[in-house]
Amino acid sequence: MTGTKKTANVFLAGTDRIAIDAVAVAILKDLGSTREIMEKRIFEQEQISRAVELNWGSLRRLPVEIITADRKASRTPAKSSKY
Fold this sequence. Notes:
- This protein is an all-alpha fold.
- The protein contains four helices and no strands.
- The longest helix has 15 residues, at 17-31.
- The radius of gyration is 13 Å and the shape is flat.
C-alpha cells in the first residue's frame, strides 16, 4: 500500500478485536485515508461487515468505551460517530 503518512498519537487496546478495528477505521477516516476506507461507512468495510455477520465481537451488544488522557482528547471520538 502507498499513501500519505499521518500521525494519530493514539494507542488502542481492548479485548474485542472487532471493536478495535471499528475504532481504528474511524480514526483513519478522521485523519483522511485511502479511497477504499473513505468511501465506505465503518460497518460497510469488508472485514468488519463479515465479523458482524458471524456475530464476532460485542459491537451489537455493548457500547465501546473510549478512555482518553485529557479533556481535549475525550471530545475527539464523538466526531468520529458520523462514520
